[in-house]
Amino acid sequence: MASPRLRSLQHLDTRAVALPHGTEVTTRVERVVGERRVPQGSVGRVTKIEGDAVDVTLVGVGVVRYARDEVIPRRVGQALYAVRRADAWQLLRPCVVLESTVGSRAWGLADEGSDTDLRGVFAYPFTLTTGLVEPPEDLVSEDGSATYWNAKKAMMQALRADPNTLEMLFLPNARACDPIGEWLLAERDAFVSREIHGTFGRYALGQLRRLSQGMRLHEHRSLLLGWLREDPSLDLDTVAGKLADRSAREYPSRKDAVAQAKEHVKQLYRSLCDQGLLPESTFVALVAFAGAGAADLELSRELRPKNAYNLLRLLALATSWLAEGTPTFEAKGAFRERLLAIKRGQVELDTILAEAEAMVPMLEAARESSKLPERADIGRVDKLLRRVNEEVARRFANAVDGPFGAGAPEAPIAEWAD
Q: Does any domain span residue 352?
């Protein structure tokens, strides 16, 4: 069955729509970077926007700057998503009721290059809750620095002890933009429970382990490209054998290790093909890519030191919150200096993982002795959400000044999707 939608793509200009960070784009012009020609039709992802300038990270090349009309979303669906995201921001940004400055600036770990990131909560105007079209649950700014969740979604996340949501609610800089935001702050302790042991502490430890494994895979990919540049005659079996010899993971047999390494090579050329960097998903195309002078693959955002320092911070935060009953977000003293060193990439991931493992006994002890409730107070949260929805309806019925009353947006008109 077809689904209701907000708008059609019939008259969409893909050269003009907003491009959220991470959007996969195709270049419309040729560029020369150093001695390398970057052809028209190259595929990359948006990493920065400054006015009409767009920085695009191209695999094997790095960051290249283009004018906005020199790149287009690679897929029509991405263009539609970008339009809906921009429309939602325009429509509902006035309905934000609570906002916090999050990230390194809230943790006492900011440097000159740190961004200012915002998280918060918005409420739906009554007009958006009465029709067929489902209103958006998230608002995200074009540059990705600000994210707001609908009140119900934020409450559901907080009930599950989601770290991002609880931090947004409990940071000292949390500020209400509306009386509804004041209600959320007044009731925030209803969301706290010993479940932060898992969502903060155990989650951070698991992510650090995956981060360490991911870094090793990245190093193997760089080695692989180097081998193929030096000797294009290498075949898939030989390369897989060389990778298997480098792996620190134990396998039942060498045959199993080589099979896993071969699958890793296949995943690499499939991924590069999906990104438009290889003409076909084959080992032969990968060899040609390496031989053409491709630089080492860009380190993914998930593998950057920023993630490691934040995960170690989460582990420490969970331990202290469980033990003391209240959160302390700003890092201080020797622990702060250690996190900054990790952030600067001065500590090996294996060392960070060992430090995290050493913190586990303290985390478990804090969980056992914690005076926090076993689960969040769902009844109290349910009453809070009802109060928010009733207040929004009251303001609309009484045409109170503001985005929830006299200034509420018109309800979107549903259309059939093609």
A: yes
